[in-house]
Amino acid sequence: MMSFLLPKPSSTQLRLGIMGGTFDPIHMGHLVTAEEACQQFNLNNVIFMPSGEPPHKDKRDVTAAEHRYLMTMLAVVANPYFTLSRMEIDSGVTSYTVDTVRRFCDLYGGNLKLFFITGADAILDITTWKDYKELLESCSFIATSRPGYSLQKLREVLGSAFTVVMRHIHLLEVPAMAISSTEIRRRVAAGKTIRYLTPRPVEQYIYKNKLYKPLSLD
Length: 218
Ligand code: ATP
Ligand code: MG
What we know:
Strand order of the largest sheet: 3-2-1-4-5-6
Bound molecules: adenosine-5'-triphosphate, magnesium ion
Structural class: alpha/beta
Number of strands: 6
Distance between the termini: 45 Å
CATH architecture: 3-Layer(aba) Sandwich
Radius of gyration: 17 Å
Number of domains: 1
């Protein structure tokens, strides 16, 4: 069944962006990136897709999916161009991007132009993603700049796969935000401020639920 949060299938072409991530927690770097992609690529919507069982991370270290989903909700719902999906967190299995993209193509049929938005750090290992050739054929990629990762480095890393892969990838420079979820988690654990790194409601949610704090004995 289609969630009411998702845009309805349309008889004219829908240009949708999917912003995948662990979002543990979501922060301004994610939001600025999605906003820029939305405007530059004329997207009807950007759908934030918190991962369920992230294949590239150690599950034990990732916050419960429901917390990550709610924080993402708090950060995106007020933007008319942004929404979010439970598809990966509800799938119950390890989610691969290629499976998510297939499911979106099934949901929306032929009138869909899908863009997968991903930071330079993630795109660097695209050739290790499940069925990456099929994935590159079934949607476009928007590879965005991220402080500390150079888009130039892609050529070296991809080697001979570069030409094939880059036919399907658009490069996008976004306003630089040197923020990561890892840094936010560290700051909370150390009692440092995270104000302005993430939207205020997300910050409040983190404190209310005591996320990222070492377990205290009292
Ligand atoms: P972690 O430190 O836990 O890995 P993260 O900050 O990298 O968290 P993710 O949820 O892993 O956040 O990232 C989701 C997507 O957002 C990835 O494609 C990543 O490249 C991109 N991204 C994350 N932070 C930024 C940022 N500051 N600027 C641009 N893109 C970013
Ligand atoms: Mg990351």
